[in-house]
Automatic annotation (TrEMBL):
It comes from Shewanella chilikensis. Residues 237-490 form the EAL domain. SMART domains: EAL (SM00052), GGDEF (SM00267). Residues 100-228 form the GGDEF domain. This is Diguanylate cyclase/phosphodiesterase.
Length: 497
């Protein structure tokens, strides 16, 4: 009886040993496969692709997966899309230099930031990956393709691309996307560089592409090419930006004041502070040029803090002399969404021992819409300080009853663009009258900017405007000039009244 049992045990033992040996062979093959994959996946920054993992290796594989995910992207490659990045693009272009034929294109997604704001960053990443796939799938596509930064892609075509070609390309790229069942329509902004006409070193070519894209963003059809001589424009802009901090310290910038006339009384109780810059090299630089540059470069806070302090100094001087007039100051979107500016206003009012009613703040519609919820909180706090609040350039942005009725503002300023055809175009008159009536129905006072003729002034008065601002009322003046004008104007207005 013992013999068969021993035989069974022996057979079972042999079977177990064979299974163990087979398992060990599988594990050895797995380890070999894992080692080969690791080498490739580290280079590609791609996840492991293992059809089977032995139980004993689960923890190891999970740890390796986490390490792979944490690795920085390979030099020259964009982690999100798998395309070349700026470093990789420069390497590839350098290998092809000199590039004297073809077209370089730099494109981005119009207002891509709003996609992230509305749907989240994961959604935005999916859109960028689908855009990269669409670019890769183009027929007769580019020789080189790279993701340069957040939503900017660079394409190099060996064949010259006409504007007609590029419009067709934009059309293909603007076909709506589907992100997890959500349809997304986009617009593409595109700058291009004709290498036959404008080939040079790589650094300058990329700078010229940036200039072309910047120009496209401000054009009607969002497409523009680099033109000879535009480098000098950028050099001027760079010099202006770089000289701004010193200019603020050395008195190159100063304020002038433009009066607002009350229609009913003819009096001036408020002026707008306007910045002027007398540059030692460029002469008078328009605010329309340097203010956008300050915003773009992140220096607008310096300008706004300087302007606020100049207003406070002037108000302290005027108040001590018995001269009472409110000064309106423009704030940018960056100022409005920066809690530091609110704190600075409170601090300076306290330091100069001035009441809040010496100040009015003017904010553009676009500034409000950048972060409406945050903007309303700051406006409410400013109003608690007895600071007058106005919407500047009313009618050029997002005007609607839905958002206007919730804003804690006192005044709207209708942009001077609405005046251009007011005397000759009946539609322009209807638009102006409707804008004034809409604002007044919500309880706002209405100021119209850019009033340059007596005929225009009379029409606006008949439409119900509360205040008028423009050269027919008073040109911008220095503080001493304003005091002299104010004395004569107010005496005349009071006498006439």
């Amino acid at each position: 009886m013992i013999g068969p049992w021993l035989l069974s045990i022996a057979l079972i033992t042999v079977f177990i040993l064979l299974l163990w040996r087979r398992q060990r062979q599988k594990e050895r093959r797995f380890i070999k496969r894992l080692g080969m994959q690791l080498d490739n996946q580290i280079k590609a920054r791609a996840p492991l692709e293992l059809p089977w993992v032995p139980v004993a290796f689960y923890d190891l594989v999970n740890s390796l997966e986490k390490l792979l995910q944490a690795l920085p992207p390979p030099v020259g490659k964009d982690k999100l899309t798998g395309l070349a990045n700026r470093v990789g693009l420069k390497r590839s272009v350098t290998a092809l230099m000199p590039l004297q034929q073809g077209t370089m294109v730099l494109l981005d997604i119009y207002r891509f930031r709003y996609v992230n704001d509305l749907f989240g960053f994961a959604f935005g990443d999916q859109l960028l990956k689908q855009m990269a796939d669409r670019l890769l799938g183009l027929q007769h596509g580019p020789r080189l393709l790279a993701r340069m930064n957040e939503d900017e892609f660079l394409l190099y075509f060996e064949q010259q691309q006409t504007e007609e070609d590029l419009h067709r390309l934009r059309g293909r790229l603007q076909v709506p996307f589907d992100i997890d069942g959500t349809p997304v329509s986009i617009r593409i902004q595109m700058g291009y560089l004709d290498l036959h006409a404008h080939h040079t070193n790589l650094s300058l070519m990329l700078r010229r592409l940036d200039l072309a894209l910047k120009k496209a963003r401000n054009s009607r059809d969002l497409l523009a090419g680099y033109q000879t001589g535009e480098d000098s424009i950028q050099m001027r802009e760079l010099e202006i930006i770089n000289s701004l901090p010193k200019a603020l310290k050395t008195g190159q910038l100063y304020l002038v004041y433009q009066a607002k006339e009350e229609v009913n009384s003819g009096l001036c109780r408020q002026v707008e502070a306007l910045i002027r810059w007398e540059h030692p090299k460029f002469g008078a630089i328009s605010p329309a040029e340097f203010i956008p540059l300050a915003e773009y470069s992140g220096m607008i806070g310096l300008v706004s803090h300087w302007a606020l302090e100049q207003v406070m100094l002037q108000q302290r001087k005027w108040r001590s002399g018995g001269f009472k007039v409110r000064i309106a100051l423009n704030l940018s979107a960056q100022d409005l969404n920066n809690g530091c500016m609110l704190q600075e206003i409170e601090r300076q009012l306290q330091e100069y021992q001035l009441p809040g009613d010496v100040l009015a703040i003017e904010i553009t519609e676009s500034s409000l819409m950048a972060d409406l919820e945050q903007a309303i909180k700051i406006l409410e706090r400013l109003r608690q300080l007895d600071i007058r609040l106005a919407i500047d350039d009313f009618g050029t942005g997002h005007s609607s009853l839905a958002y206007l009725k919730n804003l804690p503002v006192d005044e709207v300023k209708i942009d001077k663009a609405f005046n251009e055809e007011l005397l000759s175009n009946s539609n322009a008159k209807h638009i102006m009258r409707a804008s004034i009536q809409m604002a007044k129905s919500l309880g706002f006072e209405v100021t119209v900017e850019g009033v340059e003729s007596m005929a225009l002034k009379q029409v606006l008065i008949s439409m119900g405007a509360d205040q008028l601002q423009g050269d027919i009322v008073a040109k911008p003046k220095t503080a001493p000039e304003l005091e002299y004008w104010y004395a004569k104007h107010c005496i005349h207005a009071k006498t006439a009244g």
